[in-house]
Design a protein that fits this description.
By secondary structure, the chain is of the alpha/beta class. The chain has two domains: 195 residues, Periplasmic binding protein-like II (D-Maltodextrin-Binding Protein, domain 2), CATH 3.40.190; 164 residues, 3-Layer(aba) Sandwich (D-Maltodextrin-Binding Protein, domain 2). It is 36% helix and 16% strand. Strands 1, 2, 3, 4, 5, 6, 7, 8, 9 and 10 form a ten-stranded mixed sheet that branches. Helix 3 links the parallel strand 1 and strand 2. Helix 9 packs across helix 10. The relative contact order is 0.19.
Length: 380
Amino acid sequence: MKRFITLMLAAVILAVPLILSSCSGSGSSDILAELEGNYENDLAGTTLYVYNWGEYISDGEDDSLDINAAFEEVTGIHVEYSTYDSNESMYATISGGGVEYDVVIPSDYMVARLIAEDRLEKIDFSKLSNYKYIDEKYMNPVYDPESEYSVPYTAGYLGLVYNNTLVDPADVEEQSWSLMWNEKYRGQILGIDNARDALAIAMFSLGIDVNTNDQAEWDRAANYLSEAVPLYQGWAMDQTFAKMEGENATVAAYYAGDYLTMVEDMDEANGNGDHLSMYYPKEGTNIFVDACCILKGSKNYDAALLYINFLMDPYVALQNAEYIHYTCPNTAVVENEEYSEYGNEILYPVTEVKSEYYAHLDDETIKHYTDLWNKIKSAG
């Protein structure tokens, strides 16, 4: 799937070198001819600092489009690209000072927190010619009610991934989160290594509102999660890929797009991608949107806008969607007949998934569940 659309691009890049114009993008290259946005390179020489989730952009592997390299060649702007593995680790980095990023791509509830704390710049949408391709259902979301600070990048769900050759079919028949508490798989379960998701799994299991500010309910969820921890092989985020692909773990809570990447990687390595399955638990799960934002005080604001516009360009967005396998909010991608993943039941489920967005909670609740999480981690 990563390779489906990008083979032709790879041939173009090999055959036709990119020739940058000194003052505008016109006539710069064949790749530029594929783009709809205006990518004038009068910012050439700028260094743009981008902070994104790991495994979350088409990067040139498997004959895919290297989006950052393509942006650099078209605009002359150098991309200094760093990754994180959770919203909380990203927040700790940017709030700790000493590191200056321009573009970050947090999840919805973290976008709301950054807005509330005045950590984001308002976006000049007049400079985003490709914003017209963002599906209306993603506009004016609860986390950014006036769509002033964020541009949707991807969407998806948290689900339960398991190795169907190692899990008893009877144990997944009910499609429940209870698999994460099943004694039969002691030492084979990966706990998801971030507070909000890990505690939410317990909350969904117990029927607790994942957006409650009632600290007693968070205590109840933490106690229930603690019961599962002795069964865990360990805590994992990006490490989940290697563990599940190598069949060194059996059960993991992880994200839909990453599950599809695992399947594809296993197929490419040894043809056993069909060993993995995924479901959305009946008790409910998290639905999320990750969005592009510009951090307050960015020294490269115009370059950041150009980068975000580039990500939304129909050609670029299609390459990215094919590679990272997440639900795409870009109508030009979804309506493209060449998009191989539209209709994929994991990304675009026909049957409604019982799900809820995480909301930004009050400071006392954030501190409380963070303290609970730290105790769980230190004990486990």
